[in-house]
Specification:
single chain, 411 residues, 32% helix, 25% strand, globular, binds flavin-adenine dinucleotide
């Protein structure tokens, strides 16, 4: 049995704690917040094996530059003088190649499908986090976007996923809740969805039963090492002795990694969501409104919309209402008959997606230490990939053969 300290109580930290404690380890989670409103809460709740293509892909740089001049666009890089931003942009540019995409797709498929299997296991224990397998509709309004979406759907099909291609007339047979102006859709039958908040509650109960200790409002400041091993985690509330340290600090990971002498290229991708409570009229299948990259998820009686990706810094906590206008105009144009009151600024949630320059998560051991594991950089797929990440962390701690090939998931 090892004494494992997990830094970060988001969905990745909690999932790692679950599998480590199940394997018999003593686990402590440290988080500087009270763990009630981080990035793992207000997200769109989608489990997305469909997302096989890493964000760093050919054409993305040019598209990103075009979008930078549109204040309502779904993707935006906040221009500023920053070495981190420069290095991230350069790495993104160099990585966004066809061969990177080709190498990454099987790994993303395998980790996603493993994660979904683990979600199915959790969902067998309880229906309290509202796990459902209704797939994901990629709805599009223009032939140009449709072409790209259909191409991606065919690639996913060739990788073994079940995908349907729907004409405008076929959409109402799947999306029975609301009418849409979409001219076509790709239906990924592999995808699922759940309530992120209720999932969090479920995991906290399970961790409590497994004896996991959680130290909230505790900020990790530094580390004490002996040769190449970390012996203590130093916080504002004292020190924690440790045999294994797991860095699961999402968008803040570069700060802690730096204290360990590790450089990772990761920036926060700010995104917004808002939730319509007890929304009677709503879509029944989770969807992405492709032209505006808006995610739509029915969660129990509620309906959640999420969108925008602003590459920024973690001090940027302002809600940019222009971006929100972009989200709202996309929703109204896809669902002209959906009745709801536009949200006010106070109703908007935001979170920082931990975005690596490669578009891939980082799940690996540190090269510099014998007992440090990084589990971060999941960008827009942290919820989706969390259970598999937790399992892989446990396999690394126990020096087992990893369930999937981790080579491309190194920092
Ligand atoms: C609008 C939006 C929609 C999204 N939709 C989806 C979706 O549908 N499906 C999906 O899979 N993903 C989605 N995501 C992405 C997903 O939410 C993230 O990938 C995921 O939450 C990241 O989880 P994490 O545990 O890595 O990080 P976080 O949840 O950010 O947790 C990191 C934790 O580390 C703590 N921490 C940081 N530094 C320190 C320190 N020094 N000491 C102590 N604690 C520290 C923080 O307080 C924080 O609680 C969405 C994101 C957004 C913004």
């Amino acid at each position: 049995m090892k004494n494992c300290v997990i830094i970060g109580g988001g969905i990745v930290g909690l999932s790692s704690a679950y599998y480590l404690a199940k394997a018999g380890h003593k686990v402590t989670i440290i988080d500087r917040t009270d763990m009630t409103n981080g990035c793992s809460f207000g997200n769109a709740g989608m489990i997305v094996p469909s997302h096989l293509i890493p964000f760093a892909q050919p054409g993305m740089m040019a598209q990103g530059i075009k979008w930078m001049f549109d204040s309502k666009s779904p993707f935006y890089v906040q221009p500023r003088f920053s070495m981190d931003l420069f290095k991230w942009g350069l790495k993104f540019y160099r990585t966004a190649t066809a061969s990177h995409v080709e190498k990454s797709m099987p790994v993303l498929r395998d980790i996603s499908l493993l994660s979904k299997e683990l979600y199915q296991d959790w969902a067998k224990q309880t229906d309290e986090f509202l796990y459902q397998e209704k797939g994901l509709l990629m709805l599009y309004k223009s032939d140009k976007v449709g072409e790209e979406i259909i191409h991606e759907g065919k690639e996913a099909q060739s990788m073994g996923l079940e995908v349907d291609f729907l004409s405008k007339d076929q959409i109402p047979s799947v999306e029975t809740g609301v009418e849409t102006t979409a001219v076509g859709a790709v239906h990924y039958k592999s995808d699922a969805h759940l309530s992120p908040n209720k999932l969090f509650a479920f995991l906290l109960t399970e961790l409590d039963k497994l004896g996991v200790e959680i130290s909230k409002q505790t900020e990790v400041l530094d580390f004490k090492d002996n040769r190449n091993a970390i012996t203590e985690v130093i916080t504002n509330k004292g020190t924690f002795a440790t045999d294994e340290v797991i860095i699961a600090t999402g968008a803040w990971s570069p700060e802690l990694a730096k204290k360990l002498g590790i450089s990772i290229s990761l920036l926060p991708g700010k995104g917004y969501s808002f939730t319509l409570k007890d929304q009677f009229q709503k879509p029944v299948v989770p969807s992405i409104l492709c032209e505006g990259k808006v995610a739509v998820t029915p969660i129990g009686n509620d309906l959640r919309f999420g969108g925008t990706m602003e590459i920024t810094h973690t001090k940027d906590t302002k809600i940019n209402m222009k971006r929100l206008e972009g989200i709202l105009s996309t929703i109204h144009s896809f669902y002209p008959n959906l009745q709801f009151e536009d949200p006010k600024e106070k109703d908007i949630w935001f979170g920082f997606r931990p975005c690596t320059a490669t578009g891939l998560p980082i799940i690996c051991r540190s090269d510099r230490h014998s007992n440090v594991i990084l589990a971060t950089g999941h960008a827009m797929m942290g919820l989706s990939l969390a259970p598999a990440t937790g399992k892989l962390v446990e396999e690394l701690v126990d020096n087992k053969k990893a369930s999937i090939d981790l080579e491309v998931l190194h920092y």
